[in-house]
Specification:
The chain is an alpha/beta fold. The protein has helices spanning 2-27, 44-60, 75-82, 101-104, 140-149, 164-176, 188-197, 207-215, 262-276, 279-287, 297-317; strands spanning 33-37, 64-68, 90-95, 116-124, 127-131, 154-158, 180-184, 202-206, 220-224, 252-257, 291-292. The longest helix has 26 residues, at 2-27.
Length: 323
């Protein structure tokens, strides 16, 4: 009889767990959701993240409260989310830098794959190689030639060590063989301002951030980092067209803590997809030079694993270190 009682108790426990999981899915969300972004206000990830979060609030019936927790290439925000309760009430919006930090930081307090449940990709967009009008650079060829004439004397700004703009720079450096001085900033707005004033010679920036200053004539775009030209800057060549074999996607995506119930992750993913298919959202994203890229949790998980491997190779090949 004892084995039979054990089996009966086990089955009852399983049934209770299933009921609880179903109840959780039916009542979620029952309170506001915190969404952490590891980069500064006004950055492109902040703009896209806040747009998506606001629209998700309408669909979920609870407010998604966005918090900027900057520092260490987005790892402060990611670390907070990785250690949060896996109940769907603390989420992370991160960029391609999420794929870099595992190889970049030797004592990272979390694992970028094991400690997160990928929800969905949000967008895909290029970075733009920028110079000031007064720089005299008219093309990528001009910039590379100058850098080769003066090795180590060209200052190249980025949004911070481990950021997507930094990783684009490193790939550019490896592809061209130039030696440059990396100048990390706290965020994209700051590096673009210093590029426009000539404090740094050049920088990469997400296209959504760059468009305003490009159209105002304060910055000159030399190339985009993706394999195809973009409609918002149709006259600007790709890096590949300019002779630099580089294809870089400055993607953004949403993550939950690992062990978040799959039904909650799936619900969030469906909500992201609903938001990104709305005509007004698609138009606003397109106007910033980006492309909506909703994905299932499974698709996004596979994408992130591939990106971690790809970006890790860039870091190892470039011998990139935290200074």
């Amino acid at each position: 009889m004892k084995p039979q009682r054990t089996i009966t108790a086990t089955l009852a426990a399983i049934a209770l767990a299933c009921c609880c999981a179903s109840a959780t899915a039916q009542t979620y969300p029952a309170k506001p959701i915190r969404v952490l972004i590891g980069f500064s206000a006004g950055s492109e990830i902040d703009t896209i993240g806040r747009l998506v979060a606001a629209k998700m609030s309408e669909g979920l019936g609870q407010q998604l409260v966005v918090e900027n927790r900057t520092g260490a290439g987005g790892t402060l925000a990611a670390g907070f989310v990785a250690s949060a309760a896996p109940d769907g009430y603390v989420l992370l919006i991160n960029s391609v830098s999420h794929a870099a930090v595992q190889a970049l930081y030797t004592k990272l307090p979390f694992d970028t794959i094991k400690d997160f449940a990928p929800v969905s990709q949000l967008t895909s967009a290029p970075n733009v190689l920028l110079v000031a009008p007064a720089s005299g650079f008219k093309s990528v060829k001009d910039l590379v030639a100058f850098a080769k004439e003066k090795p180590g004397q060209v200052n190249f700004g980025s949004a911070g060590v481990g950021s997507g703009t930094h990783m684009t720079l490193e790939q550019f450096r490896l592809a061209t063989g130039i030696q440059v001085a990396h100048v990390p900033y706290k965020g994209v707005p700051e590096v673009m301002t210093d590029t426009a004033t000539g404090r740094v010679h050049t920088s990469f920036a997400p296209i959504g951030n760059a468009l305003g200053m490009v159209r105002d004539g304060r910055l000159v775009p030399l190339a985009v980092s993706t394999s195809a030209r973009v409609p918002s800057l149709p006259e600007v060549p790709t890096l590949a067209e300019a002779g630099v074999p580089l294809d870089w996607d400055q993607w953004y995506g949403m993550f939950a803590p690992a062990k978040t119930p799959p039904q909650i992750v799936a619900q969030l993913s469906r909500e992201v997809a609903r938001v990104l298919t709305q005509p007004d959202v698609r138009e606003r994203i397109a106007n910033r030079g980006s492309v909506p890229k909703p994905s299932t949790p499974e698709e996004f998980a596979a994408f992130v694993r591939a990106e971690v491997a790809k970006v890790g190779k860039v870091i190892r090949d470039g011998n990139i270190r935290i200074e």
